[in-house]
Design brief:
The chain is an alpha/beta fold and about 260 residues long. It has a single domain, classed as Rossmann fold, CATH 3.40.50. About 35% of the residues lie in helices and about 15% in strands. The strands form two sheets. The chain has a seven-stranded parallel β-sheet, with helices on both faces. Strand 2, helix 2 and strand 3 form a beta-alpha-beta unit. The longest helix has 18 residues. The radius of gyration is 17 Å and the shape is globular. The two termini are about 20 Å apart. It binds fructose -6-phosphate (F6R). The site of fructose -6-phosphate (F6R) has 13 residues, from loops.
Length: about 260
């Protein structure tokens, strides 16, 4: 995995935005996998800025979101549909029909999950997947003990995730217990992956994902098996990495590398 350490969360977001922009400029009809939560907010702000000030064009792009809470309608302020619309889609020129987000209100989850996987495949697969990481090491809502070969399905959220996400709801018991999520296997099929993490609170999860063993107990560790995965972190999230000096040494030497 390529580890890129930036001083601040803002620089982390800008680095990730440059990767997205480079992809869209070379492949305007790229398929991009998107995450929600606090972590990618800066990235989305930067993409909106690039769209408005530099003409970054999303008109031919397709997006697939990782997950959605089961039971929340698209209009619910804490649904990931609402989040994506408010924080990205309404500010850029993406075509509505090219936006895919798992449904939290379908009456047939199994059929929906199969359809979602098939849509990704029919669109040519995901070119670039953006990920955040949970404090328990999850990617999307693949909680500890999720199969590393899992596909899109319903998952029961871990207590730690419910507690972490309670900050967005009025009370703990309003946080949904179930989510529909892409699987680890689905994610690993993306051609390129960027894992983002900022803040000290993510430091242990990042260290386990990047330097620990590959284990279903930290589903982000499965990224070690991917041939083109990048982990972009700020100082806080990098603070428990044992090989931090080495990653920074690589970065410093990069311009002279053969
Ligand atoms: C959200 C998602 C989750 C979050 C993770 C971190 O779509 O897939 O895995 O990325 O829970 O959330 P934040 O960024 O809020 O700390």
């Amino acid at each position: 995995m390529e580890i890129i350490v930036r001083e601040t969360a803002q620089e982390m977001s800008k680095t990730a935005a440059r990767v997205v922009a480079r992809l869209l400029n070379s492949k305007p009809d790229a398929v991009i996998g998107l995450a929600t939560g606090s972590t990618p907010l800066g990235l989305y702000q930067e993409l909106v800025r690039m769209h408005k000030e530099e003409g970054l064009d999303f008109s031919q792009a397709t997006t697939f979101n990782l997950d959605e809470y089961v039971g929340l309608t698209q209009q619910h302020p804490q649904s990931y549909h609402y989040f994506m619309h408010e924080n990205l889609f309404k500010h850029i020129n993406i075509a509505k029909q090219n936006i895919y987000i798992p449904s939290g209100t379908t009456d047939n989850y199994q059929a929906f999950c199969e359809w979602y996987e098939k849509r990704i495949e029919d669109c040519g697969g995901i070119d670039l997947q953006i990920l955040g990481i949970g404090s328990d090491g999850h990617i999307a809502f693949n909680e500890p003990s999720s199969s590393l070969g899992s596909r899109t399905r319903i998952k029961t959220l871990a207590r730690q995730t419910i507690e972490d996400n309670a900050r967005f709801f009025d009370s703990l018991d309003q946080v949904p217990i179930y989510a529909i999520t892409m699987g680890v296997g689905t994610i690993l099929e993306a051609r390129k992956i960027i894992l983002l993490a900022n803040g000290q609170k993510k430091a242990a999860a990042v260290a386990a994902a990047v330097e620990g063993p590959v284990t279903s107990m930290i589903t982000a560790s499965a990224l070690q098996l991917h041939r083109d995965a990048m982990c972009i972190v700020d100082r806080g999230a990098a603070s428990e990495l044992k090989m931090l000096d080495y990653y920074q040494w690589i970065q410093a030497k990069m311009p002279d590398a053969p």
